[in-house]
Amino acid sequence: MEKIIFKLKLLWPFQVFTIFVRYLLGIAFVWASILKIEGIRFEPQSGENMPIDSLSHLLEAMYRSGFYWYFIGWGQFIAGVLIMSQMFSTLGAVVYFPIMLSIFILTTAFQGPVFLIMTSSMLLANIYLLLWDWNRLKFLILNKPGEYVDQSTQFSKNRSWTYLGIFLCVVIVIFRVISTRHLV
Asked: In terms of pLDDT, which residue wins out, 82 or 139?
């Protein structure tokens, strides 16, 4: 598996694809986190009167918990920023995984078909990023992981990807904050 991943890392289309996936996942979490950080519902209407086994009711309960809503928001924000930074993308993918897995399980349990397609795609993309960084992560999992080999190419090490990630993050935050002002 490691040899296959290394060979793929040498191909620039896979490098660009990986950077693009990091940006997409990061943008999705940063975008969703702003609502929670600002204390705004995920859905425009209260899910209080919805059936207790509905996704809307669960989201309303999480929203009304207060602290937990902010906690989820900040967790998503931090994971999104780390992934988009490119420099800390491995840590971001690790932080992203349990959050995304929880969201996926919730959408599966509450049978949200539209959300299920989206969350399963995001979870698979996150797993792709974890496999992409296997050479770094294997030291956390395996007893005898072998020797560390830096598999980053000059293309993916280029600082412009980091600057672009920071720029995208700032733009997303500004745009989201402005677009949520009417919701408050």
From this structure: 82
- CA–CA separation, 153 and 147 (whole Å): 18
Are the CB atoms for 58 and 42 separated by under 8 Å? no
Amino acid code (one letter) for 114: V
The closest alpha carbon to 115, from 62, 74, 59, 73, belongs to 59
**Which pLDDT band holds residue 54 (cuts at 50, 70, 90)?**
confident
> Can you tell me the distance from the alpha carbon of 171 to that of 165, in angstroms, rounded to the nearest whole number?
10
Q: Which amino acid is at 12?
A: W
User: Taking the domains of the chain in order of start, what are their residue ranges?
Assistant: 17-139+150-183
- Residue 107 exposed, middle or buried by CB count within 10 Å (0-12, 13-18, 19+): buried
b (16+ CB within 10 A) / e for 119-143: beebbebbeebbebbbbbbeeeeee
Is the separation of the CB atoms in 113 and 103 below 8 Å? no
Render 94-151 in DSSP notation, one character per residue: HHHHHHHHHHHHHHHHTT-HHHHHHHHHHHHHHHHHHHHTHHHHHHHH-SS-------
Q: Which residues contact 18 (CB under 8 A, 6 or more apart)?
A: 128, 129, 132, 156
